[in-house]
Design goal:
With 138 residues, the protein is α+β, with helices and mostly antiparallel strands. 20% of the residues lie in helices and 22% in strands. It has two helices and five strands. Strands 1, 2, 3, 4 and 5 form a five-stranded antiparallel beta sheet that branches. Helix 1 crosses helix 2. The two termini are 12 Å apart. 14% of the residues are buried.
Length: 138
């Protein structure tokens, strides 16, 4: 089992020493909810403590943060089960780790929106499913 988050860090336009995380509290809340949905132990972790750990990692990796418009440092907190057996059961052990990577614009030629239709009969987050959690199966 695994769940993850996708976060970004940016350098300020006015001061390259000013590094900003985009809405980390919401990412921690969703990571906690995803862990809870997968019955992982530790889903009640201290959100502010993990945000501070991530902030320290980002400060260590600050030279990797691009300064060009549309670029950022991608941050991926990930939690995996590490129990030493296969089976249908909640994990006893987990590992939380965070990786970073500089990234550019998602669309190299610029953002070009497309028209989409939203149908209410077809939903991603079915009751009892994992659509509302950020897990490897989604």
């Amino acid at each position: 089992l695994q769940c993850f988050e996708g976060m970004k860090a940016y350098k300020s336009v006015n001061d390259s020493n000013d590094i900003r995380l985009f809405r980390p509290q919401l990412n921690m809340k969703r990571l906690s909810n995803s862990m809870d949905r997968l019955c992982m132990p530790g889903s009640d972790f201290d959100h502010e403590e993990l945000i501070e750990c991530i902030a320290k990692l980002v400060r260590l990796d600050q030279d990797w943060i691009p300064t060009e418009e549309g670029y950022s440092l991608y941050i991926r907190p990930t939690v995996i089960s590490t129990h030493p057996y296969l089976g249908v059961a909640a994990p006893d052990e987990i590992l939380l780790y965070v990786i970073t990577c500089p990234v550019g614009p998602y669309y190299p030629s610029g953002f070009a929106p497309v028209r989409l239709t939203a149908d209410t009969p077809y939903v991603r987050a079915w009751p009892g499913g994992t659509g509302a959690a950020k897990v490897g199966g989604n």
